[in-house]
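hey m, so remember when u said the tokens were messed up on ur end? i reran from scratch. heres the input so u can diff it against urs
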Amino acid sequence: MRITKCRASGSEDLRPFLDLGVTPLADALVDPADVAAAEARFPLELAFCPESALVQITEDVPADQLFVDNYLYFSSFSDHLLEHSRDHALGLIKSRRLGSDSLVVELASNDGYLLKNFVEAGVPVLGIDPAPGQAAAANEIGVPTRAEFFGLDMASQLVAEGHRADVIIANNVFAHIPDINDFTAGMKALLADDGVITIENPYVRDLIDHCEFDTIYHEHFYYHSCTSIDRQMRRHGLHLNDVEYFPDLHGGTLRWHIGHRHDPSKTALRYLANEQAAGLDQFEYYERFAARVEKVRHDLRELLNDLRSQGCRVAAYGAAAKGATLLNYAGITTDLVEYVVDRNIHKQGLCMPGTHQPILDPTVLLERQPDYVLLLAWNFRNEIVGQQAEYVARGGRFIVPVPTPEVI
């Protein structure tokens, strides 16, 4: 269903600036037996709302289609993410003086990869994640997890049960929620009076400046700036008080610190001022993005066609959602990229949506030694290249697609 009003502010002044066509759901991996069947496809367009300063897609796909049976992302398969998450947890334990009488709630807790660090330190936790496989995996390792969608109703239920959260963590989920106001209201209701909310998401400024268009897909309803977060929190009586930046995580990630009271750090104020100076709250900042995206598509296809015409064999690494967006938008099917490898055993044996490359174990890179590997999961570039040192030593090369296609 196409939306005509901003999901956050309700404004009808939505200004489209990028159209990626009609694509399958990026996480809807395909069983090899079903590749001949028609896949559900939906328009993928990006728009900006001046009132909320929020970038968002203009199509609504029901949440139960996006994040339940076909959602096979398990955080524990990334060493970089595990290390980042452990540092986050240990930092919160120290700075918030968390102990056995505290409660940490993580929204979209996945397979318990982050909360297990609190459990090991004796801090009570609760994970909330609607994906049944991930919730089951978390419970199996001793991380109490409810397989439900979070919102104001669930928060009210938890408060009625006597729960108030000293810390609420929402990592890589604040882009995924159709009703952002219900989700924000739920966080406010559940948060203890002196508690803190930390939200992590890729930074829309990096998306635009570095042409990271492949991070756009139907599961990502929103693309946040500090300005959009600040306005969203104020709408619900919450306040943005601090900002941290992680340039090497997911192409550039921000962590926002939110509380009931207004107590902004110099860093938070600086980010807001810098965004205003750069124009992130104005449509003009976004309107020329489409031409840059089209150039990446043209240059990448030209590079792959040249390699194939020379007889080179090309594979890809990372059966991630961003890979599905890139492959489908650029029209890269098995004639240009033969297969995709991924460490996630839950994805192996399936095929990429739309373009149908089979997903295999990364060990095949040494068995088959393709000449080039298109790095779909470029956000883990250093980790993957390090893991594949033997492939590189044998003469293998990687292709990084954004911000401009290059061979490394």
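this time it looks ok to me. Confidence is low (pLDDT under 50) at residues 71-77. if urs says something different then somethings off w ur setup not the seq
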